[in-house]
């Protein structure tokens, strides 16, 4: 998801917002702001789902490892190893997703400045 949708979106909005005031017509900036808000809402939903999955995998790992230590069952050791092997990529993916969405917020603020030349952002 990051490479297919978020990364191209970040690149597109980076190029778009690198323009100076006056280079991007106000109407285009306003249209892009509306499109970006829709994209942000999609990515926020995706971020929430991945947060839930990551937390559940983390809890599963935290429950499985002590259970193995108490019960000494090989199946629990294998389950714990599998959960850790899946948890690490989930954490990395969530990290990229979170940072990407934060970057989209900044691009929205830049578009807001381009759409409203007299607007002063605190960002």
How far is the N terminus from the C terminus?
A: 28 Å
What does the overall shape look like?
rod-shaped
State mean pLDDT (0 to 100 scale): 91
Order of helices and strands: HHH
Structure at a glance:
The protein has 123 residues and is mainly α. The chain has helices spanning 2-17, 26-71, 74-115. The protein is built from 3 helices and no strands.
Describe what you observe in this structure.
This protein has 123 residues and is an all-alpha fold. It has one domain (27-115). Helices cover 85% and strands 0% of the residues. The chain has helices at 2-17, 26-71, 74-115. The protein is rod-shaped.
Which tags fit this structure?
3 helices; 85% helix; mainly alpha; 123 residues
Layout: helices, strands, pairs:
Elements: H1 2-17, H2 26-71, H3 74-115
């Amino acid at each position: 998801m990051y490479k297919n949708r978020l990364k191209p979106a970040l690149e597109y909005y980076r190029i778009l917002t690198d323009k100076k005031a006056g280079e991007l017509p106000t109407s285009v900036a306003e249209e892009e702001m509306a499109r970006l808000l829709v994209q942000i809402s999609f990515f926020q939903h995706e971020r929430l789902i991945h947060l839930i999955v990551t937390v559940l995998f983390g809890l599963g790992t935290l429950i499985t490892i002590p259970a193995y230590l108490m019960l000494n069952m090989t199946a629990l050791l294998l389950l714990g190893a599998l959960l850790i092997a899946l948890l690490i990529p989930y954490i990395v993916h969530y990290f990229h997703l979170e940072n990407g969405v934060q970057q989209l917020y900044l691009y929205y603020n830049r578009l807001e400045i381009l759409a409203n030349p007299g607007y002063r952002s605190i960002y």
